[in-house]
């Protein structure tokens, strides 16, 4: 039999592009607590919407969809044009798939009841986090949480389906639109990251089984708010400076979180005198990232309690957030507890 002597040379020219997100989801479907196929399809729907938002983001400067939209959302924040575009794209993807019965979005005042009584999942989403940075070409992102509904299939949705603690998530993830676009997600069996290859139109597995370093030397906090911090946070940041840690703060939650997840570090958005309940939203920001960081071996806290244990009481409830490498989060908590007796009260 004639052999082909140049097989090795040809293989070296045609490098492997890796496993696609779609194939990975199919391979891992057996790991899902409810492996019936709907969750797999839901993740694909989110990935498709992310591809469209990535396209819109990349051409924002050429299509006049950058800048402010001229309205404010329920948070009292000025909506950017891309906020509206991203919200529409994800709403369409989630509503047409058939797997979702209700959606909670940062851009919507109330729960979006899709009237899909056969839908098994509730999705909480921040369609475009950090969108005010789009005009200056800084990384932005999408954050999502997926919950299994509590009420029986076929019945109307209730608050019981919506107001679930983060520990009840069946999946969570984020998309980072930056120098490369990445989708990172977990279904409770570790964390995987996928990088988008635009020429092929596919997400490929690039970061399998992501593990957050146990500690790090990066701290991320808006130091312009120092006068608003309680003494425990001030003491912790001072300690970071004494230890010559690096201060890295982009001002885009997904981007700051992603860097610290891979390199080791802590992200802090603490309570302040002006915002004693914190600023970040529990349902569609803190819970998702807390689920991811715990699956990667890190930790997420509000300074006193585990984020995933907090029982939500309001749709757009806010929370302080300390998240990242486990050792660093625990150190920050200790500083806050050590000095708590020296603080009179936040609400003065």
TrEMBL record:
Positions annotated to bind substrate:
129-132, 222, 249, 267-269, 279
Q: Which residues form the Fructose-1-6-bisphosphatase class I N-terminal domain?
A: 19-208
- Report the residue ranges that make up the Fructose-1-6-bisphosphatase class 1 C-terminal domain in this protein: 213-337
Q: What's the family?
A: Belongs to the FBPase class 1 family.
A single cellular component GO annotation: cytosol
Positions contributing to Mg(2+) 1 binding: 106, 126, 128
How this chain assembles, per its entry, is: Homotetramer.
Q: What is its EC number?
A: 3.1.3.11
* SUPFAM superfamilies found in the cross-reference section: Carbohydrate phosphatase
List the protein's name.
Fructose-1,6-bisphosphatase class 1
Q: Which cofactor does it need?
A: Mg(2+)
Output the Pfam families linked to this UniProt entry. Answer: FBPase, FBPase_C
Q: Give the main EC class.
A: hydrolase
Q: Which gene encodes it?
A: fbp
What is the protein's species of origin?
A: Algoriphagus boritolerans DSM 17298 = JCM 18970
Which residues are noted in the entry as Mg(2+) 2-binding?
126, 129, 285
Q: What is its main location?
A: cytoplasm
**InterPro entries the record matches:** FBPase_C_dom (IPR044015), FBPase_class-1 (IPR000146), FBPase_N (IPR033391), FBPtase (IPR028343)
Listed under catalytic activity are: beta-D-fructose 1,6-bisphosphate + H2O = beta-D-fructose 6-phosphate + phosphate
Give the PANTHER family listed for this entry: FRUCTOSE-1,6-BISPHOSPHATASE-RELATED, SEDOHEPTULOSE-1,7-BISPHOSPHATASE, CHLOROPLASTIC
How is its cofactor bound, per UniProt?
Answer: Binds 2 magnesium ions per subunit.
